[in-house]
Amino acid sequence: MFKPAKLLSTTLGLVGILLLSACGGGAAPASSAPASAAKPAASAAAASAAASAKPAASASAKPAASGSASAKPAASGAAAAKPAGSFGPVFSAAAKPSDKLKLVYGNPVTPPNLVHMAAYIAKDMGFFDEVGLDVEFKSFEGGVDALRGGLSGGLDVVGTSSDPLFAAVQQGAPVKAIGTYAPKLSVSMVGQSTIKTPADLKGKKIGTPGGIGGFTEVMARLVLQKANLTPPDVQYVNVTTAGRVPALVNKQIDATVMHVDQYLTATSQVPDLVDVANLWEIAPDWWYSAFATTEDNMKNKREALTRFMTAVVKAQRTMYIDPANTKKWAAEETKAKPDVIDKAYDQLATGGIWAVNDGMPEKLINYTIDKEVDVNVLKAQNKPTYAQVTDKSIVDEAIKRNGGVWSGDPRWY
Which of 178, 214, 300, 342 keeps 20 to 30 A from 167, CA to CA? Predict the structure, then answer.
């Protein structure tokens, strides 16, 4: 438990650690979820404790065939078995190359939540094999650690929330986003029954996997700002990504930010937990996540990275086309109960959470950078630009190998 004090300097200190690691040893991956951690917990798209909670999505974003904008939020979690939509092409297994390349991928959480499943679907459904790629998975306790491992040279591509990526770019790290596993927010601040509004968080203990500058802590800042509060007004408690559900259920913390499957798991055990705030409503154009790699990898391992993104794009498209297999593999990888996965899938698919095209709209990325300046995560001076953060050339080639962009549905971006 700790109270953050010098916010900007502390955050930049974290980035300094990231950059120092680029010159030193790699961060050690988390071997597995701690024994005390319950099934992947939950939160995100819930307007109430009921399973009909709305998943996050940018309410103000316009539909775009090219993926340059995000879709509107789902009306409810009660989607059809196969969400209605205009599906497009995917990579054909008949195009499998004769050679086999290798690549190491760092996943940002242990175990994954449903929102993180794209790379796992690509592995479990054989899409990496189809594109001639042997992928080794390493799991971490947050995007900060995953990105640190990527900068150190121990990983070829990592999944991360946008926050550590932007901070690293601002400090001059040679890293770029080459795609995303989910551009839109689908998380909520969930609290004990006595916490009804963001103002009620004052003096309370908030679970923050990853610490200062990590995704959960940045989301907490956005919620606190709604009540004119800042991090010194609360107590941050360091918990694991998988451990936030049992920590909230057992009242070791008062609140935390949760993904939808985590929320559903937690409320199945403690029904009176409160959805204090939906982050997609507080920050409707926030760009959530990235697949990131170094500039050296983009030069020296370009074909392997292109095959990675080809398989991932196919996986993300398949997650809409094939709900049955998506749910089966998600239950196995996330360790969540099948009924939790059913409800979470319906909410996320209806909201269009997974990208099917490039998933890196300039509007969302610029909005997120500006908001991070606003809550003192980034410095206003030399804030990152869209061109500094992204490189679309690899995912553009991956989309071509998958038969082109998907269009005709407001969820596709």
Answer: 300
Look up residue 262 and give its amino acid: Q
Q: Please, what is the Cα angle at 125 between 144 and 121, to 5 degrees?
A: 25
What DSSP letter does each residue of 140-168 carry, written as one string? Answer: -SSHHHHHHHHHHTS-SEEEEEHHHHHHH
The helix/strand/coil state of 122 is helix
| Contact predicate 68/366, CB 8 Å | no
The pLDDT of residue 248 = 98
Residue 241 binned pLDDT confidence (cut-offs 50, 70, 90): confident
pTM of the model: 0.80
- H/E stretch holding 191 reads strand 187-191
Q: Rounded to whole angstroms, what are the CA distances from 27 to 106, 154, 400?
A: 11, 8, 35
Q: Which two tokens stand for residue 379?
A: 């410095």
Domain ranges of the chain: 11-36+79-184+287-401
Cβ 360 vs Cβ 183: under 8 Å: yes
Distance CA 180, CA 272 (A): 34
What's 272's DSSP letter? T
3-state secondary structure at position 264: helix
Domain 11-36+79-184+287-401 sits in CATH at 3.40.190.10
